[in-house]
Amino acid sequence: MTTRTRLYRDGKPVEEDFALCDLADLLVEPGPVAWVDLHDPDDGDLAQLGDVLGLHQLALEDVRESRQRPKVDHYKSHLFLTVYSTRVGEDGELATAELGLFVTGRALVTVHDGFDMDDVLRRWDTADLAEDRVGVLLHGVLDAVVDGHLESALALEEDLEQLEDAVFEERVGDRELQRDTVRLRRSLSGLRRVVQPMREVMVALSRDRTLVDDDLRPYFADIRDHVSHAAEMTDSLRDQLTTVRETQLNIQSNRLNLIMKKVTGWAAVIAIPTAITGFYGQNVPYPGAEQPWGFWVSTTAIVVLSGGLYLMFKRRDWL
């Protein structure tokens, strides 16, 4: 396990990397708030954290089990939140990282396995509200998470635009196009599962008057607006992707119809010489049999009728 700790007083870090067992002593003095970051903790580390801060067993159990739904749980002495950061890789796949947060009156604890906290630290260091409140620290975390959701939605929007352009290209690999469509749909579905529950999380936090007071309420309202924006973008992109897929299928159907139309037209043209040569191949006497003019009559009929049928199909755009 990797542990990082900070103690804030007057909105500034005054002590870092202190031991977890010293947390209770540091919070005896009124005023400062603490941040504890646990990276890949085991059951013993979580049990020690629970003893120091008096965390509920159900919350500790939730943080042990990965792939929790984004949520906020209210306990007597603290809150427990589960959120996800998102990032779209170079291959277009959506990557997520789970983050569990324990919010007490004097401390914020983040528990994760791969969540990038560096951006959060920068936000804390440049926070406008230089006061000792856990709500300020929580705002920095949620602001970074939701901004990541918006960035992911914008990245997927760019991928969708490229997919739309590829649909109308003359020479495009259907298999590659289908693979990109499935990948984008999978990424959008994953982003939607992460973003949609965040609306409930932000609404629940905004109702907590102890954590979000009048000074912090505009900041949390701004995050809530960003969450709504990300959710609306995700839904819109899903609808656009469905339209692109339907357009792709319609184009393929039209191309197949065009091919069938041309094949049928050429088959009709070829049927004329086949019919005439078949007629003159009879083993019974007919006009012009064994005569030079009979050969020229049949040849002229083949050329005239086939050419006329070709011109008629061409004029009607069947060939």
Strand order of the biggest β-sheet: 2-1-3-7-6-5-4
Strand content: 15-25%
Radius of gyration: 35 Å
How many helices does DSSP assign?
Answer: 8
| Mean pLDDT across residues | 85
H/E element string? EEHEHHEEEEHHHHH
Helix content: 55-70%
Main sheet overview: 7 strands, mixed
* Low confidence ranges: none
SSE class: alpha+beta
* Beta strands, count: 7
C-alpha geometry = rod-shaped
How many angstroms separate the termini? 71 Å
Protein described:
By secondary structure, the chain is of the alpha+beta class. Helix content is 58%, strand content 16%. The protein has helices at 23-26, 43-53, 57-64, 118-125, 134-167, 174-206, 217-280, 292-315; strands at residues 2-9, 12-16, 33-39, 71-74, 79-88, 94-103, 107-112. Strands 2-1-3-7-6-5-4 form a 7-stranded mixed β-sheet. Helix 5 packs parallel to helix 7 and helix 7 runs antiparallel to helix 8 (292-315). The protein is rod-shaped. The model has no long low-confidence stretch (mean pLDDT 85).
Summarize the structure.
This protein has 319 residues and is an alpha+beta fold. It is built from eight helices and seven strands. It starts with a strand and ends with a helix.
